[in-house]
Structure formats: structure tokens, C-alpha cells
Amino acid sequence: MEDLNEQSKELNVNAISQQVEEEPIQHLNNPVANLKPIVKKYLTAVRQVVTDGNKFYFSDGDARVEIRVVSDEIIRVRLAPHGVFLEDFSYAVPKVDQKVTLFKLEESESFYHISTNTVSCNVRKSDFQISFTEIQSQVVMNEDQSPMHWEENVDFGGYYVYATKTCMQEENFFGLGDKSGNMNLRGRHFQNWNTDAYSFGWDQDPLYRTIPFYIGVHQSLAYGIFFDNTFRSYFDFGREDASKTSFWADGGELQYYYIHGPHVMDVVKRYQSLTGTHPMPPQWALGYHQCRWSYYPEKKVKEIAEGFRSRNIPCDAIYLDIDYMEGYRCFTWNKKHFPDPKRMIKELGSIGMKTVVMIDPGIKVDDNYWVFKEGKENNYFCRRSDDYFMEGHVWPGRCQFPDFTNPKVREWWGGLYKELVDMGVAGVWNDMNEPAVFGSGTFPNDVRHHYDGHRGSHRKAHNIYGMQMVRSTYDGLKKLMRNRRPFTITRAGYSGMQRYGSVWTGDNIASWEHLILGSIQCQRMSISGVPFCGTDIGGFSGEPDGELFTRWIQLGTFSPFMRAHSAGDTIEREPWSFGEPFESINRKFIELRYKLLPYMYSVFWEHHRYGFPILRPMIMLEQEQISNHYRQDEFTFGDKILICPVLEQGAVSRRVYLPKGAWYNYWSQEVLQGGSEHQISAPLDEMPIFVRAGSIIPEYPVMQYVGEKKIDEVILNVYYTDGEVNSFLYEDHGDTFAYEQDIYSEKKFNVKGDASTLIIAQSVEGLYTPNYETYSYNVVGLPFQVQSITIDDQEVSDFSMNENKELRFKSDKKFSEVRITG
Ligand code: GLC
User: Fold this and answer.
1) CA gap 583, 570 in Å, rounded
2) Do residues 533 and 526 make contact, with C-beta atoms less than 8 angstroms apart?
3) What distance in Å separates the CA atoms of residue 762 and residue 784, rounded to the nearest whole number?
């Protein structure tokens, strides 16, 4: 393959007379525009091609298109309606170019082909339609149904920009992050405009976050499209016209990345390589969190914290919602309710409870309030087009709002957390950052933003505002906490937000429908690049009964972010609020979360380091099976544990689809064969959970909070398989950035079994040495009577089989090979 990387050449193309297609249309959003004919302009025939390294510029004589080879599997397309591209700046993608091996430009009679080893981007000469073909199978993965087009925006300047693709036969769509309703997006229409969607409903759109990234699957092959445009954007998956998939935006550039699969997992990992992964959270953040709007005064906060300890229900964090502040002024304390916050935080800390506080973007207009004064003096607040301040009412009353798209403002805001950090606050929760304004919903379009020097109105900055707020929070905390890992949560965000914080799904409702919805939402966020996601366990508004709350705790045990939260006008809902048997069952599941902590933390590492999502819906496991394109009520956490939440009131069993291979019922250890459905018993104290045969699931002792106990040994639960499976255990300091300097330990376990042996091999990477010395094994499912166990050729005499036929023995943590023979 010829490498054109260093070359720049101009091709002469047969001049084809340029036709401008003019199509008067009705403009839906703009009543004034309806008075005049609006003209959609389409790209016409290709007349010129210029190459510049990994960028190829095609022109029809007026408009230009840039096609850029980003990696072997990612190709970016940009449109400049009159030949001039906008500045190439993205909050989502910090660095566009990745490693490319080889690529070439070829010309055939009707097309130009830009191809890498994996994918070919084809530009049809006659009409500029673009398609993407998988080189190996020659399957057309994605193709324009009409050429890219645009429409001048007379009121604001720039263009409405449109791409219309063919909706392939039997093609299904996934992703888009924060959307309500079913997992499969086919036949639906969506809009992205970050919205404070209190008590949102099934299919309500838009919600809090914008992730303009979707995955298409057809002919068992997957690809993704990331439309990196922060303006109000729209996606239509065959709803308006069953043969078309389109995406468009109210402004900005028509710029999208084609991301090749062929597996859904590959697409997600590659999307993650563009937009980044979540940094390792402090390990305690994977524990259980308790929240309410609001726990106050101090006595109440302590009573709740102590309530966990006296009942032996593990919990790592307690939240202070807006009422801890003085008149909802951010970075202040209500001294009546919290006379000495530093002491309180310390006392909570002494029983292992971390304090997380709420910080909103609305700053009260009050000349006696230091934050407002600093913001005003330094001109940090957003302004309208005529230079008035952007003012709106939120919790504190009349407010102004920092422009988080200004790097100076972000730096200032990050520094404001100093006092909170000095007091010992462990995490920060950023809310209302769509941005939300009472009454009008959000800012008017004419508000101006710095946009890191690429100035724009709120039309351009709205969807990015929340992400820049949590970015400023994260970066500020990171500096202030020195080498400790910040923990942040944000409600609003845009693609790439995962680099700065976790998310929760906003103000849900205590209903069975919302339990289903929450399960889908977390899966969807996970495959849309936002791994650290959870719902308000129990529902924010409305009243759950004990059964619903318990089923929600069970789902939450396997949500990457596990937090119960509720609105102030509802009954309290701590894990003990509903009495027995609920309290004991809630404890059992929260304890399970703490036991599985090393597994969950390792899955987090796999995400951070390699871009794997944490939750994996069925479409990701077996995309070739069409029925899986519709399954949304089960998922795996990592690749070893399958979770089948009980989402129906009164249910004591449920249908479960097991992916191909053998699976162990976590509770009974019965082995079931996958590739089919099974009816599984699910009494209130058991949510169906399955472990993939061949897995090693590491386990810590139950703790009341992360770090409560010194870990003397790690339990390795080994699930026999007739075959070979790899598992991982990741460990590090848990709260520092030393892992960036390779101070971590990544253990790979290889399990190989046949009718008479099971061999476990271990290899270790990294510079961190955990404190414990031994592993305690718990081997299940052995099909033979154990005759001997050797560890690195040394015979072990001390082993036993318990009544559940689990084989127990111990080894030094440094073993290389364990051999169990029958
Ligand atoms: C918003 C948040 C909610 C919070 C409340 C008060 O509704 O979504 O979680 O409790 O504001 O701060």
C-alpha cells in the first residue's frame, strides 16, 4: 500500500458542470423564516481533490469537504459550505490524530477511495455522496442517501447542517447517551439540548446530557458515528422516513467521525480513544453512598451516619444537598445548622464516612457575598448580547452565572473549593448545570461565551456548559487535593465529560417503570462512553414501598455509581427505612458490593486503561443475534458477571437469556448452558446473578467502608470450566495518582480445565505490592474428586471440600501455577 502521509498532490478531475440544487422548504423552528423561501443546498459533483498528509480536501467548486484519516479505523468528515472551515476546536476530542499504519487514495471511474487497512471511505464523483466500506468483507457499513447539505441561517449567521444516511436493512441503532425509553433507537427521533427534566417520563426527550454518538449494527457488523457538534442537534433513525437515518444541527460545522467496529465493543473503545476515559476514582467512591435533599442539621447527618454503623450496613459517603449553605450561596455554610463543619466532617471521617457537598452554578447577586464580588470584579459572569449580565432565578433567588467556557473562570472556580477541601470534604456534586433557570428553563440564545477563545453564543455553548463546570471542579480539586483523586458528579455534560466526573440520571420517580428505565439508562450511558453512572436509588420523587426500594438496591449494587437519593417532600429512605425483611436484604446486597469491590475496581481499571465499558448490554455480547438487539433487561458488569435485575412488582422468578457458554448461578452454583433462555427463581432476597465459567472473581472481606480493615488475604472464587478463560485483578493505592507512574499491580489469571485437571496460572505486572500475603481459594464446579493440589510443584496437603462441594485451600500471593488434579 502506498503511504501518502508525506505527500501533497493535486488531482485534476474532469470538470463536471456544477448544479446547485435548490429546494424551498418550510422551516419548522423559525416563524419569521417561514415567510421567505429557505434554500437547502447540496454538495454537487466533485471537481477537485487536494491531499495534505492524512487530510484530503474535495471540492465541488464552492463547498469543500475534508476527509481525515484519524486511525486505521476512524475517519473524520468535515463540510465547509463555502470552502472555509471553522476553527478546528473540540471540547470532546482533545487530540484528533491517532496512530495510522498505512492509507492511500485511489481513483476509480466513479469514486475516490481513501482506504486504510480496515476501512475505505468512498466519495462518489457524480454527486459527492460518501460511503464507508469494510475492506475485508466489502460490506457497505454506512452511506449517504443524499449528499451533505446545509441552509443559511439568516438570523444568527452560519448554517443549519444536515447529513442523511441510508437506514440499512435490519439495521439497529444504539447509544446517544442520556436518552429515555428503549435501548434500540430505531424508528425514533431525538434532540440534544441539555434540559433540567424533573420527573422525566419514558421516551421524554431531551434530557440532561448531550452525547451525539450512535452505533449502527447490520449484517452482524457494527460502526459508530460521532457528530461532534455542540449546537442543538437532532437524530432521526428511520422515523421520518424508514429508509433514512439523519443527523443535523442548528449551527456549527457538519463534522463527524466514522468509527469502524466490527464489534460494538470495538466501536465503543475507539469512541473512547477519541473522547477519553474516566480517570481512576478513589476506591471509596465505589462504595455505597447515602444522599437526601437534604440531611440537616449536623445532628441529623450524624444520626444517619451512625445509623449505618450501628446496623452494620456498609456506607462510604453521606451527601449534603443545598440546605447546608447560607441562603443557597455556594461555598458558604449555614452556621445555625452546621456551626463547625470542619469538626463535623472530621467526626464523620472518624467512622469512615466521607462528606460530599453540592455546588450549583447560580451565584446569588449579593454585593456582600465574596464569591459574587470576586466574579463581578473579574468579569467572570456570562453576559447577554447587549452586555447586560445574564440573570435568572435559581435556588438562591436572582443569580448570575460563571462562564465556564473561559479558562480563567475555570481556574478561579476550581480554586474556590479550597476551604471545602481544607475542611476535609471528599467529593463535589455539580447540579443544575444544563444550565437550569427557573421559569425560562435555561439561558436565552444570545448569551455570549468565551468558548476557550472560539467565541460563541449560548446556541453553541449550551450543551457544553455543564461539562466545563465539572471540568473546572475536577481540575480545581485535583490541584487542591495534591496527589489524591477527586470525586465529582455532574448532572449535565457533553461527550468527553467522563474525563472529569461521574453522573447520575437526574430526577427520576419512585416507580417500577423508572426502575426499568434506570437500568436501560445506565447501560446506554455505558456504551456511550460514560461509565461511572447511577440512578437515584429508590426514585427521587414519589414514594417507593419496601419491595421497590429493595429491588432498586439490588440493581444499584451493580450500577457503577451506587447512591440512594430522594426529594425532601418524600419519606426518608435509608436501607433500614422499610423495616424487615427489607433491611436485611438491603444489607446483604450492599455487603455483596463490598465483597466484589476488587472485581469492580478491576473492571474500572479495564475501562480507564483500555476503554472497555463497565456495563455491557446484550447487544455488545452477541450482536450477531438479532434478538439481542432488543434485549435490555440484563447486562454484564465487566465480562464475568451477568446481572438480571428483577424489574417487576411481585415477581419471584424471571426469564433470563444466558449468552453462549456455561454460566454459574451465583446463588446455587448450578451450571446452566447459554445460548438460550431460562426461567430463574428470584425471591426478594435473590436477584439472578450468573458468573461465566472459567472466571476468577476476587473478593475482599465485608467492610463497613473502604479501608476499614487491613486486608490479610484475598479470596479467589474460581469457577471451573472445561476450557480456558482469563481473569484480571487490579490493585493500587486506592486514592493517589501513583498508578500513572505504573505503581499498580495488574494480575492476570489464566484458568484452564479439562475432565481431570484445573490449572490456574498467574502473571503480575506493575510496581505496586499489596499488603496481604495469601490467597484463599474457593473452587466451585469441579467435575472430579480432588487427588492432589500442587502450587509451583509443591504438594499442598491442607485442602478441604465443604458441604457445597467447594474446594478450599490457600496459597502465597506470588504463586505462578496452581494445579488441581483428579
Ligand atoms: C435537583 C437535583 C436533585 C437535588 C435538588 C436540590 O433537582 O437533580 O438531585 O436534590 O436539585 O439540590
Assistant:
1) 19
2) yes
3) 23
Q: Give the Cα-Cα-Cα angle 758, 759, 761 (nearest 5 degrees).
A: 155
Ligand 1: centre distance to CA 431 (Å):
7
Return the pLDDT at 201: 97
8 Å CB contact between 714 and 730: no
Q: What is the pLDDT of residue 100?
A: 86
Index of the ligand 1 atom closest to the CA of residue 293: 10
CA distance 735 to 87: 38
| C-alpha–C-alpha distance, residues 574 and 588, integer Å | 14
**Separation of alpha carbons 269 and 278, rounded Å:** 12
CA triplet 397, 400, 403: central angle to 5 degrees? 145
Ligand 1 center from residue 534 Cα (angstroms) = 15
* HSE toward the beta carbon, residue 7, CA cutoff 13 A: 12
**Shortest CA distance to 79 belongs to which of 149, 152, 157, 155?**
149
The residues lining ligand 1, judged by C-beta closer than 6 Å to any ligand atom, are 293, 321-322, 358, 431, 491, 506-507, 565
Report pLDDT for 18.
35
Residues 719/780, Cβ–Cβ less than 8 Å? yes
> Bridge-partner residues for 398, per DSSP?
393
CB neighbour burial string for 163-184, b if at least 16 within 10 angstroms, e if fewer: bbbbbbeebbbbbbbbbbbbbb
Separation between Cα atoms, residue 800 and residue 806, nearest integer Å: 8
As beta bridge partners, residue 753 has: 758
- Say how many Å lie between the CA of residue 511 and the centre of ligand 1: 18
Which residues is 223 bridged to in the sheet?
A: 216, 260
Of 292, 251, 249, 232, nearest to 155 (Cα)?
Answer: 251
Rounded CA-CA distance 211/494 in Å is 6
Please indicate, yes or no, whether the overall pTM of this predicted structure exceeds 0.90: yes
Per the CB < 8 A criterion, the answer to whether 662 and 693 are in contact is yes
Q: Do 495 and 211 touch, CB atoms closer than 8 A?
A: yes
Could you tell me the CA-to-CA distances from 292 to 202, 244, 323 in Å, in that order? 24, 45, 10
Angle between helices 582-595 and 597-610 (to 10 degrees): 50
- For ligand 1, atom 7, the nearest C-alpha belongs to 507
Contact predicate 314/351, CB 8 Å: no
Sites in the chain below the pLDDT cut of 50 = 1-28, 31-33
| Residue count (the chain) | 822
| Nearest by Cα to 739 from 279, 109, 160, 80 | 279
Predicted local confidence at residue 21, as pLDDT: 41
Residue 325, sorted as left (phi over 0), alpha (psi -120 to 50) or beta, turns out to be beta
Q: For residue 153, what is its C-alpha cell? A: 441561517
In whole angstroms, what is the distance from residue 511 CA to residue 632 CA? 18
Q: What is the DSSP code (8-state) at residue 591?
A: H
CA distance 641 to 237: 32
Q: Pairing mode, if any, of strands 713-719 and 696-699? A: antiparallel
Is 771:747 a contact under the CB 8 Å cutoff?
A: no
Report the 10 Å Cβ neighbour count for 76: 25
DSSP 305: H
pLDDT at 36: 56
Q: Is the separation of the CB atoms in 125 and 16 below 8 Å?
A: yes
Enumerate residues 6+ apart whose C-beta is below 8 A from 476. Answer: 410, 411, 413, 414, 415, 416, 417
**Residue range 162-206, pLDDT digits in tens:** 999 999 999 999 999 999 999 999 999 999 999 999 999 999 999
State which H helix or E strand residue 247 sits in: strand 244-249
Joined together, the cell numbers standing for residue 159 give 448554517
Which member of 60, 228, 321, 507 is catalytic? Answer: 507
Q: Does residue 507 have an active-site annotation? A: yes
Q: Check if the beta carbon of residue 754 is closer than 8 Å to that of residue 790.
A: no
Any residues with CB less than 8 A from the CB of 68 and at least 6 apart, and which? 54, 55, 56, 75, 76, 77, 78, 96, 97
Give the sheet arrangement for strand 800-801, strand by strand: 696-699, 713-719, 774-780, 807-812, 800-801
